[in-house]
TrEMBL record, chain A:
SMART domains: HTH_GNTR. This is GntR family transcriptional regulator. Pfam families: GntR (PF00392). Residues 7-75 form the HTH gntR-type domain. CDD domains: WHTH_GntR. InterPro entries: Tscrpt_reg_HTH_GntR (IPR000524), WH-like_DNA-bd_sf (IPR036388), WH_DNA-bd_sf (IPR036390). PANTHER family: GNTR-FAMILY TRANSCRIPTIONAL REGULATOR (PTHR38445:SF10), HTH-TYPE TRANSCRIPTIONAL REPRESSOR YTRA (PTHR38445).
From TrEMBL, chain B:
It comes from the Bacteria. Gene3D superfamilies: P-loop containing nucleotide triphosphate hydrolases. The keyword 4Fe-4S does not apply. Keywords: ATP-binding, Nucleotide-binding. This is ABC transporter ATP-binding protein. PROSITE patterns: ABC_TRANSPORTER_2. Residues 10-235 form the ABC transporter domain. CDD domains: ABC_DR_subfamily_A. The keyword Glycoprotein does not apply.
């Protein structure tokens, strides 16, 4: 359930919290569920949940208020967005341009295509008509 | 529970156990730390129950040293009051009701939580006033699960505690285990064949086969440590060349090869470019593959034959 077998669970827990911070579900300075709550919800070992949370503490995205719990650090969202954009470049843009070069697509054509697919997200072009 | 020191609670050194003509434990070395949920996995007859019996003074090793909380388990009553062993076919006095079994457990275990036991009786819909010998197999298992959890012993062994429990009851067990463990950290040793069901609950995995320890590893480091590569046989062969292969299957021109390796992002991308598919390997699959690889059962051809041989030699 929700947890997959390809990677360590603590990494997946950390990513889930990161996603919630990025899309605003967890606002900065708001409290994060406790590790025991994570464990119960995802049905995972509490130590594993704790490892995921402490990874984000180490990265300065969460901080601990003694006796109260974990909170989202100020600036966490900006930090994550920057990191995600860098990842986006490596994971998507680089392979995209590599493949485009292979197919002889000029950067102008590529930009045009991107524009087309951008408007396509509103109303998928062709997919309806065909 | 983050970063709490976890001192060793059980140590097993060079322990062997001989029955008449077979070696149930073969030079076993193990260290168990406090505050963790261990999975003790292995086939029937692999030595799981023998190991747990030795650790709880219900059996004796032929050679080697066992220490529980630093003591020999059978020499110290104080040790026995701190450990709880729920056997697969736990026996209770004939005329006992579950309520009486709980009463007895409450006198033996200092940490017994009666309110918690009562809640679980409700959840499992257990007839607490009926005689135990009249209970169904599942209800009998529920009695064991309740005693194991409500006793809050410092070390609790569950030896396949789920026989006869339906899927709903097993989920209740897993949920109560996680919640109660989170609130009252202690050491749990869970022996189970339903590996997929318990995989996410385990912090550490011990795989035993023919009395020998095959795997003794952190569950998280096992996760993703193997991968199955699927695609055209030639390409799969090339990609997996020189790797430790756990399992190989071919079908027409396709091959599916499970390798004992964690792939880097680069290798994953490479596989993608070759048009190969990468499938995660569940803990259960990995345990099956490792056990078969160790037994030499997993010969890509004639796997069925060697399985049959194995059956025949039993």
């Amino acid at each position: 359930m929700l947890i997959d077998d390809s990677r360590p669970i603590f990494v997946q827990i950390a990513e889930r919290i990161e996603n919630d911070i990025v899309d605003g579900a967890l606002a900065e300075e708001s409290q994060v569920p406790s590790t025991n709550e994570f464990a119960a919800f995802y049905r995972i070992n509490p130590a594993t949940a704790a490892k995921g949370v402490s990874r984000l503490v180490d990265e300065g995205l969460l901080y601990k208020k003694r006796g109260i719990g974990m909170f989202v650090a100020a600036g966490a969202r900006a930090k994550l967005l920057e990191r995600r954009r860098e990842e986006f470049f490596r994971q998507y843009v680089q392979p995209l341009t590599r493949e485009a070069r292979k197919l002889g697509i000029t950067s102008e054509q590529l930009t045009q295509m991107l524009g087309r697919s951008d408007s396509g997200t509103q109303l998928p072009e062709g997919s309806v008509a065909q | 529970m983050t970063g709490t020191a976890t001192p060793e609670v059980i140590s097993v050194r060079n322990v062997s156990k001989k029955y008449k003509d077979s070696l149930a434990l073969d030079n076993v070395d193990l260290t168990l730390e406090g505050g963790k949920i261990y999975g003790l996995l292995g086939r029937n007859g692999a030595g799981k129950t023998t190991l747990m019996s030795v650790l709880t003074a219900q059996g004796f090793q032929t050679s080697g040293e066992v220490r529980v909380f630093g003591h020999r388990p059978y020499e110290s009553d104080r040790v026995l009051g701190r450990i709880c062993f729920i056997r697969e076919s736990q026996k209770y006095p004939d005329d006992f009701t579950p309520a009486q079994a709980f009463k007895a457990a409450s006198m033996f275990f200092a940490g017994w939580d009666q309110a918690f036991a009562d809640r679980m009786v409700e959840e499992f819909q257990l007839p607490a006033k009926r005689r135990i010998k009249k209970l169904s197999r599942g209800q009998l298992s529920a009695v064991g699960v309740i005693i194991g959890l409500a006793s809050r012993a410092e070390i609790t062994f569950f030896d396949e505690p789920y026989l006869g429990l339906d899927a709903v009851a097993r989920q209740i067990f897993y949920d109560r285990l996680v919640q109660d463990f989170a609130e009252h950290p202690r050491t749990i040793v869970l022996s189970s064949h339903l590996i997929d069901e318990v995989a996410n609950l385990l912090e550490h995995v011990i795989l035993i086969d023919k009395g020998r320890i095959l795997v003794d590893e952190d569950a998280e480091s096992i996760r993703g440590s193997a991968v199955t590569v699927v695609g055209p046989a030639a390409l799969v062969g090339e990609f997996t060349a020189g790797r430790s292969v756990l399992h190989r299957e071919t079908f027409a021109s396709l091959a599916s090869v499970t390798i004992d390796a964690r792939l880097s992002a680069r290798e994953r991308a490479e596989a993608g470019e070759l048009g190969l598919e990468l499938a995660p390997v569940t803990l259960q699959q990995l345990i099956v593959r490792k056990t078969m690889a160790a037994t030499g059962t997993d010969l890509s051809v004639g796997e069925r034959d060697s399985d049959a041989e194995l059956e025949a030699t039993k």
